[in-house]
Specification:
405 residues; alpha+beta; globular; 19 strands
């Protein structure tokens, strides 16, 4: 009996997907839930598992092809067990055993990364691991491959330059390389352009003294990590401060739909995260109902998912307000752009020790510039300024914020 492997249902906003990579070849034995193929959409990479045990007898689309929901990707013969499957499984088991021996003494890797290393025939000793205790992540493998491609391109360009050096007619030409955007990069570009064209974006700025928060973290970070098995970062303070400000200024938590304004009675905070494939914004749902420890754990989980390329549609959908932290890359000041259909976004920046005046005296304090970009169609300048001042006050007096004062 043959079984069709179809493109799974894509979200309403996603029209199609691109075949990124096949993990099984025609004639290979497959087990139920084995990842057969990766589909790249404009948001995430989607894995398509095998629905049954059997032999992959036919592949109908190839790498780079565009597919839509319900189209048949491949055919599996679940009755073709006999010799081929036995040989395939034996080969896989032998390969796994050999690989286990080869990886002895090397950084620990997850099963998904181990499979990737095996399929790409890569030596784990050559790949620097960025995970805990040197663990090799999927993102490390992708970065290693990207670097290899970059090196190969550089070698090709150097060879081209050498060939042209003897040709006096082409000495004045400059080289260039054209590469297609990834679907994620193209979608990010589309959304940024959409935001600029469809919203009246303004940005207001302020600065915040983080002395109290840094003292709080310093005093309790060890106890916090021991009690909750997660580090106490800055982001949870900013999320809590934003939630408190959003409660006071509901227009900042609203969105525009045609001629209507939709006021959200919940607080789903998007956290902009850089990944090897580009910027993604996973959403912390009902952030007002989460403790600091829960927020930090969810942030850590999303950060790991971004590195591993395992963020799902559900992780990215929705959101009523976004926080972007350019400070992790060294940014001192920027104007963040809206994440449609949201009406505001907070930009965090680098913390710098700077001289400031406190109670008439010049002191050195850890200062950060804040930027709030907002849609002036529904948020007045007064509201935007007061919203940002409210965040500043909460961060400069975290004890009052935590006590609900």
């Amino acid at each position: 009996m043959t079984v069709e492997v179809k493109v799974p249902a894509l979200p309403e906003s996603v029209v199609d997907a691109t075949i990124l990579d096949w993990h099984k070849k025609v004639g290979h034995g497959v087990s139920r839930d084995d990842n057969l193929v990766d589909l790249e959409t404009d948001k995430v990479v989607l894995e398509v598992p095998a629905p049954v045990d059997g032999i992959l007898t036919q592949v109908l689309f190839h790498q780079g092809d565009t597919v839509e929901t319900g189209e048949v990707l491949a055919i599996i013969d679940e009755t073709a067990t006999a010799a081929s499957a036995v040989v395939e499984n034996a080969t896989t088991q032998q390969s796994t055993a050999t690989e286990t021996q080869q990886l002895a003494g090397n950084p620990v890797v997850t099963p998904a990364v181990r499979r990737l290393l095996r399929e790409l025939d890569l030596d784990p000793q050559k790949i620097p691991g960025s995970g805990k205790n040197g663990r090799i992540l999927k993102a490390d493998v992708m970065s290693y491959l990207d670097q290899q491609e970059t090196d190969e391109t550089a070698q090709e360009l150097e060879a081209l330059r050498s060939d042209e050096a003897d040709d006096t007619q082409q000495q004045g030409e400059r080289l260039q390389q054209r590469v297609p955007m990834t679907r994620l990069r193209a979608r990010v570009a589309e959304r940024l352009l959409e935001a600029q064209q469809n919203a009246a974006i303004l940005t207001t700025f302020n600065e915040v003294d983080l002395q109290q928060i840094m003292a709080l973290r310093s005093n309790y970070k060890e106890k916090f990590e021991k009690a909750h098995d997660v580090r106490l970062g800055f982001m949870s303070f900013f999320i809590r401060a934003c939630v408190e400000a959003l409660k006071k200024f509901p227009a900042v938590n609203a969105s525009v739909d045609g001629n209507d304004i939709i006021y959200h009675g919940y607080f789903d905070i998007g956290i902009a995260v850089g990944s090897p494939r580009g910027l993604v914004v996973p959403v912390l749902r009902d952030a007002d109902q989460s403790s600091f420890a829960q927020l930090e754990k969810r942030i850590r989980e999303y950060g790991q998912k971004a590195l591993d390329g395992t963020i799902s549609y559900e992780d990215l959908s929705g959101g009523t307000f976004t926080i972007s932290n350019g400070g992790v890359y060294g940014s001192m000041l920027s104007t963040p752009i809206l994440n449609p259909p949201q009406s505001a976004i907070l930009g965090m920046h680098n913390i710098q020790q700077r001289p400031v005046v406190v109670d008439g005296e010049i002191v050195i304090r850890p200062m950060m510039y804040l930027a709030l970009s907002y849609d002036h169609r529904i948020i007045d300048g007064r509201e935007a300024v007061q919203f940002l001042v409210n965040i500043k006050e909460s961060l400069e007096n975290p004890a009052a914020m935590l006590l609900g004062l």
